[in-house]
Write a structure and sequence with these properties.
By secondary structure, the chain is an alpha/beta fold. Helices cover 40% and strands 14% of the residues. The chain has seven helices and five strands, in the order αααββααβαββα. The protein has a five-stranded mixed beta sheet. α3 packs parallel to α7. The protein is globular, with a radius of gyration of 17 Å. It starts with 8 loop residues before the first helix and ends with a helix. The structure holds zinc ion. The site of zinc ion has 6 residues, from α6.
Length: 177
């Protein structure tokens, strides 16, 4: 006897509830809060959230761009969030984790995501000048590397791009370079 649809517990477990039931908007909202905090401190507004395999957003490690605040060229939102996540779980491997970030990752951050074995990167808007998972390079999906990530783009893209536009417009008004 065959049934056309027989959902076994294994099937239910293998489905990813968040990616099916809702896109990554709620995680991106948290990342946007981080981006706003970065802008308030004078840094380019980029925010990131590391979502654990459980997809539980409560306590999910977050990061924001702190390059100016720390005078640190590596203090990008994704790096801050990755370090925090690794510290949280006590290991460098972040199998099954998802990085949700407002702006397409740069080569450094895309490389760090590959090194951390993150499962997925979700970003808001593309970065035509430095983007390294779609725009200039495709580091997250390069078959020559030993790990590849699923890439989801365009989540809250307008809100993410709008933060950047307003930040740079304000900076031009202030006459800074
Ligand atoms: Zn970066």
């Amino acid at each position: 006897m065959t049934t056309p649809f027989d959902p076994s517990p294994a099937d239910a477990e293998s489905a990813s509830p968040l990616s099916l039931a809702q896109p990554w908007s709620s995680a991106m909202e948290l990342a946007l809060l981080e981006a706003d905090a970065a802008a308030e401190a004078g840094d380019v507004p980029v925010g990131a959230v590391l979502v654990p395999p459980t997809l539980d957003l409560a306590g999910a490690p977050r990061g924001r761009n702190l390059r100016e605040a720390r005078e640190d060229p590596t203090a990008h939102a994704e790096i801050i969030a990755l370090r925090s996540a690794a510290e949280l779980v006590g290991r460098w491997r972040l199998d099954g984790w998802t990085c949700v970030v407002t702006l397409e990752p740069c080569p450094m951050c895309a490389g760090a995501l590959v090194n951390a074995r993150v499962a997925r990167v979700v970003f808001g808007c593309r970065d035509p000048k430095a983007g390294a998972v779609r725009s200039l390079f495709e580091i997250a999906s390069d078959p020559r590397l030993n790990h590849r990530l699923e890439v989801v783009e365009g989540v809250e893209a307008d809100a993410c791009a709008d933060r950047l536009r307003r930040f740079f417009a304000a900076r031009r008004r202030e006459g800074k370079k």
